[in-house]
Design brief:
By secondary structure, this protein is an alpha/beta fold. The chain contains ten helices and seven strands. Helices cover about 45% and strands about 10% of the residues.
């Protein structure tokens, strides 16, 4: 995992308390159907939580921002500056897509942004969808297990509080329980650099896992540009399908690798840079 040069300030120790039912670690997470997640972004490595539930059981996160909040105004100014850089990246990305018009017969057109309304993306009522430890469309991320547990016990508002198992989790969780499984550790900070290295250096598991968590975050936080960029038929979705096919090996893997050779490394890296920029702008670092 990418290390950070600046060590976060030490958080006040969280007093551990015994579980009311003797469960901890993996057993606790399985019982409450929530999982700790670690996400490395250009701005740091953050710990958070994720759960999957049926869409019909959840209220989507709010994304309405109080325009009079001075703290939000400061965030908007910072995000506006970041948006200028992202706009340049998006324009370069779109220019590259335009150059590939002669290849459109090999891939579906990008979805129309007009298809996405202000509500959360439509899902089947019985389909499981992701939800993160988030509030008003922002992912709550923590740099230490102690600060995360302290927040979970604080009673502060967040989207996971609506889960029927939340009370049990908040009462039992200890700092030692916050240990994400290897498959729940995502290195989004390495994606763009890996893609720039060229097809022969592409790390298939790294890129596939990045696609999975980016889709989850796009849906859960209602980040429309991310949803669109990774939607079926988009260039990044074609990249993802080819990566998955190549990873399987065998004859299918051979054809998957051939398909990857046809995907422009510059186009892929610019597309992913934009996606990661949108996700980073939606992170609320709490320590």
């Amino acid at each position: 995992m990418t290390s950070q040069s600046d060590e976060p300030e030490a958080s006040a120790p969280v007093a551990e308390k015994p579980s009311s039912e003797g469960t901890s670690g993996r057993e606790l997470w399985e019982q409450v159907r929530v999982e700790p997640v670690e996400i490395a972004l250009p701005g740091g490595v953050g710990l958070t939580l994720r759960a999957y539930r049926k869409a019909s059981e959840l209220e989507p996160t709010e994304v309405v921002v109080d325009e009079d909040d001075p703290f939000e105004a400061r965030k908007r100014r910072a995000e506006a500056e970041a948006e200028e850089e992202e706009l340049i990246v998006d324009e370069e990305y779109q220019a590259l897509l335009a150059e590939d018009d002669d290849k459109k017969s090999e891939s579906a057109e990008e979805p129309d942004p007009a298809d996405f309304e202000d509500e959360a993306p439509a899902q089947e009522a019985d389909e499981e969808v992701p939800m993160f430890l988030s509030h008003k469309g922002r992912l709550l991320a923590f740099k230490s297990t102690e600060s995360l547990v302290s927040f979970l016990r604080s009673g502060a508002p967040h989207d996971l509080a609506q889960l029927d198992t939340w009370g049990d989790l908040a009462d039992r969780v200890q700092s030692s329980d916050i240990d994400p499984l290897p498959e729940n550790r995502y290195e989004l900070d390495l994606v763009v650099e890996n893609l720039r290295g060229g097809h022969d250096t592409w790390d298939l598991p790294l890129l596939i896992n990045a696609g999975e968590v980016a889709r989850d975050l796009g849906y859960a936080l209602r980040i429309k540009p991310v949803i669109l960029a990774l939607a079926p038929g988009s260039p990044l979705d074609d990249l993802d399908e080819s990566l998955r096919t190549a990873e399987k090996g065998g004859m299918g893997g051979f054809f998957g690798r051939r398909r990857l050779k046809k995907i422009g490394a510059q186009q892929a890296s610019l597309g992913w840079r934009s996606v990661i920029g949108k996700i980073s702008a939606a992170v609320d670092w709490r320590d």
